[in-house]
Amino acid sequence: MENLEKKIQEADSLEALEKVRIEIFGKKGVLSAEFAKLKDIPASEKKEFAAGLNRKKAQLLDIFNSRHEILAQEALHKQLKSEDFDLSLYSFNSQKGALHPVRETMDKIIDYFVALNFAVESGPMAEDDFHNFEALNLPKNHPARDMQDTFYFADGKLLRTHTSPVQIRTMLKEEPPIRIIAPGAVFRRDYDLTHTPMFHQVEGLVVEKGHKVSFANLKWILTDFLHEMFGEVDVRFRPSFFPFTEPSAEVDISCIFCKGSGCRVCSHTGWLEVLGCGVVDPNVFEAVGYKDVSGYAFGLGVERFAMLLHQIPDLRSLFEGDIRLLEQFR
Amino acid sequence: MIVTRGWLEEFIKLDDVTDEQLYMIFNRIGLEVDSIHKHDFDKNVVVGRVLHCQKHPNADKLNLCSVDVGEDEPLQIVCGASNVVNAEYVAVAKVGATLPGDFHIKPAKLRGVDSFGMICSAKEIGLPDIGKGIMILDDSIGELIVGKPLREYSDLADTVIELELTANRGDCLSIRGVARDLSASLNRELKRHEHQKKKYQQTGIGRELEVHTQGDIPVKLLYTLLKLKEAEVPFIMALRLGFVGKESNNGIISASIDYSIHATGVILRAYDVARLKDSNGKISINILQESKGVVKVFCDNKELSCVGVYQNSEYMVDHDITDVLVEASYIDPELLVDAVSKNRLKTDSLYYNSSRGSEPELNIGIEYFESSCDCAGECRFANAPLSVENRVEPKIISVETEHLNSIIGKEVSRSTIHTILKRLGFGINRSGTPGRFGAVVPSWRHDISNIYDIAEEILRIVGIDNIEPKPLELIEKNRLNDTTKAYRAKRDIRQRAVSAGFYEAITYAFSDRKKQSRYGYGETDANVELINPIVEELNTMRRTLLINLLDSVSRNISYGKKRVPLFEIGMVFDKERNESEKIAFVWSGDAKDAQVSNQGKPKKIDFVEFIEKIGNVIGDFELRNWNPGNELLHPYQSAKIYKDGKEIGFCGKLHPKAQEDFDIDTTMVCEISLESIMPKHNIASSISNYQGVYKDLSLLIDKETEYSDIRAVLKDANIPLLKKFFPIDIYSDDSLGDKMSLTLRFYLLSEKSTLSDKQIEQSMSDILKLLQDRVGAILR
Prior knowledge:
The complex is a heterodimer.
Chain A: H1 2-10, H2 14-25, H3 30-36, H4 43-82, H5 101-115, E1 119-120, E2 126-127, H6 129-132, E3 158-159, H7 165-173, E4 178-187, E5 198-209, H8 215-230, E6 235-242, E7 245-254, E8 271-280, H9 282-287, E9 293-301, H10 302-310, H11 323-326
Parallel strand pairs in A: 1-4
Antiparallel strand pairs in A: 2-3, 4-5, 5-9, 6-7, 7-8, 8-9
Helix pairs in contact in A: 1-2, 1-4, 2-4, 5-10
Chain B: E1 2-4, H1 5-8, H2 19-28, E2 32-38, E3 45-56, E4 59-68, E5 75-79, E6 89-93, E7 98-99, E8 103-104, E9 108-110, E10 113-115, E11 118-119, E12 159-164, H3 175-186, E13 209-214, E14 219-229, H4 235-243, H5 252-264, E15 267-272, E16 283-291, E17 294-299, E18 302-306, E19 310-311, E20 323-331, H6 333-343, H7 351-356, H8 362-376, E21 378-381, E22 386-389, E23 396-400, H9 401-408, H10 414-423, E24 427-430, E25 436-440, H11 451-462, H12 482-499, E26 503-504, E27 510-511, H13 513-518, E28 540-541, H14 546-558, E29 563-573, E30 579-589, H15 607-618, E31 622-625, E32 633-643, E33 646-654, H16 656-662, E34 667-673, E35 693-702, H17 707-717, E36 722-731, E37 739-748, H18 757-775, E38 778-779
Parallel strand pairs in B: 13-16, 26-29
Antiparallel strand pairs in B: 1-12, 2-12, 3-4, 3-6, 4-5, 6-11, 7-8, 9-10, 14-20, 14-21, 14-22, 15-20, 16-17, 17-18, 18-19, 23-25, 24-25, 27-28, 29-30, 30-34, 31-32, 32-33, 33-34, 35-37, 35-38, 36-37
Helix pairs in contact in B: 3-10, 4-5, 5-8, 9-11, 12-15, 17-18
């Protein structure tokens, strides 16, 4: 009886413990044998003997249970250990692709304006002179046409030099109030480090009946828009000239790289030019047959926004499908 | 347009305005500052007076000079410039001075002779290069005081500002024009350029010059005669011409003309009198309009010039000529530009000014010219210039103050509006109606034609900074139009393509005609072809997105990428240049990146894996085998893609020849019409409450039989309980000969009841019979 405890304690596996269990608690085990002695014991001692034996049994069960617990833990641990697997080997980059930063930037711009109740509009890339120039107050020989070197087709059509013809198309098919943006590719015959023959613009146009729309409205929305895009920047409006708006302005933000103190990106001016805008010129309204209306328009280059927002140094890399660039946007 | 502060000050008081303020004002009023540079010099660079000059004892080309710099003793300075011999006042960098380029002046020994300083050229002290040798000063910059630092002469230490003018502001292509804009912004007077003519002998012009016109001449012209003796280009004229990037070495007349044009904006031309005089010593000028806007000036039969366009070089004034006929001219730029374009006239450098609107106040130009010649030497002027003028009534714009303010979005008072317009040269006609006035447009503002133009003037002078931004109140309107919806759907498609592993690319909408032809895309019709492409490789509009994408693949491979999955959504153009939007996918090289799970040896992309990825983007589709018969796609691994029974695009493996051309690995491509994969509205059908069963059939069929035929047969048969079927295995070996084994799985379901064994058996036997009859299938 004495070494029973020891036997339990020394069982070193669940299997060994099971053997010990059978040896002690089994039908033919040690305890059963002890209880069998009861019948030979005088009645007067019986009660005490039985009580002693039950105590002993309970004691042994306790020891057994705790031993079982320990061994079961060990066994589980062993099993888990055997399934050891270095997951850190698999912390690779995902094999997901990525959106193009120019399109992603365009998405953001569109998000802003759609949230302000603008509709998205589109138009063809092969345009005619009327929609691209004439109706936008850019008659033939206008000096401002020099600013836009144009691709022409044999039949006299051209590749749109800006998204502004979409303004004209929209006004010709709808009545005010108009509130649209027109994102899309535009084309100019210019190809060097800072110019590509195709790039993207987003154009905006708002027209209301009567003398309702003012330059102050334009200032509000563009200031808010630029804060949405670039965060806490200073916004500066400079009077400028576009044939289709009057008054016109160019809009700068304080340089997001040097915070306005002057650096290479902003040519040491502290400012970055990001937008052109103005109150719609009455000649444009006349060209589409609108009377007694007022409106504003604006336009921006998406590549410029994308390059500033993501600090992309090379414009041309945006048109090369270069995965070294694209995979940074996963 | 380059201006200098000193030059501007001839026309407007600026002494209380800092450079910083000038910079701000220019930007604020719409004259964008490109650059601003204040010239400054070391305090040890001073005015010196050359007392005498002799040859260096040991060097032929060096001079030994004694120069007074206002100190006790004159300095001995060795100078290499040949023009020092004639110099009196010069710029001297004394010992201790530092010149641009961190050049320190120290006592030196030159060929054995001590030299204590340097006589400087303009370039050496950071000024523009204005002629050979050292810079010779004269009192045109103020009284020359020996020893006085150069930095104290404001015309030398001037601030040079380069403005980027917009195309409409021809009126600011002169110093005076810019000053005029400043005068409105600063609300101060524009000075009239003051010059007391020294009143040398004046000649009566009528005795020497006659001007005749024929018919209506839509220009302004002013002529005068000038004789000049012993004149030299004053230092300040050379310096300022240098500041604005112009030459001053072609003689006094040429320099004065350029100087006066830049100062006043009036187009001036000078003619050599000697070559114009007839036998009686008279000049007879004839002016006529050849065609609309083409106004030519003749002397006898000699064509002298075309107004605003060019001048005949034969009668130009060259270096030594000092007896000249001077012409000032103005022509309406709109008239001019159309005429030049229509007649394809050759233009000279002044055309830029005349086509953008030169200064029409011609007498200002002539007066400025005379005064600058007068400063240069002994002059004799004609008493009064002869003028030809086409009187044009000034434009008057009716302005309603309230409308004007509604354009700007701020209440600008009537008096402020009037003050600004007057400073800009407008006249104000008060009308009887309250809140309304007439703005008389000055002749030099051809760009102003309506109230919006007036609003722009007010806005820029008031300053956009002073306009309070106001949100526009708008009426609610549903603006979720088709384009907006399509845009959102496109965005979802792009996002799915990215999740399927593709990178989004943007390539040019152009392509290479030859290359497109090689891969089976015909040429664009000649009448809609691009006529002025920028480079050979981009000489036509793209017929497919794939070729540009394959070029991108090729570049990526050359950068060392092994796995190149790209997609693009973009416009392609057909033979007739009609536009349609497509989405294209390419996957080249490895199917996955090298990693532990593939022991660093990922397998190449194959058709099955590629098409699964496409499915993740576009949803269910059907493939029909297709031999494209070109060198872009593999003849036996290409298919047309169908969706809902309609052909929507194609996919396949790149042809080995194309693979070689682009120098890339195994590549899969696909191009689909974007419209065909836009989300559609679905209607749900009721779901059966009963269970369906799957049944397989293994069939022997001819090897040549295409699955798409079997599919068509089964679809057309419309077997009532057959809800779905699909292939699950194909097998062939030698024992099967010309046959192969195809296993199909069929899903049978009834909406009305649980299927009985009998129903199932009946359906399966119908199917088998159909396939036996129609495609010769045999049950295996």
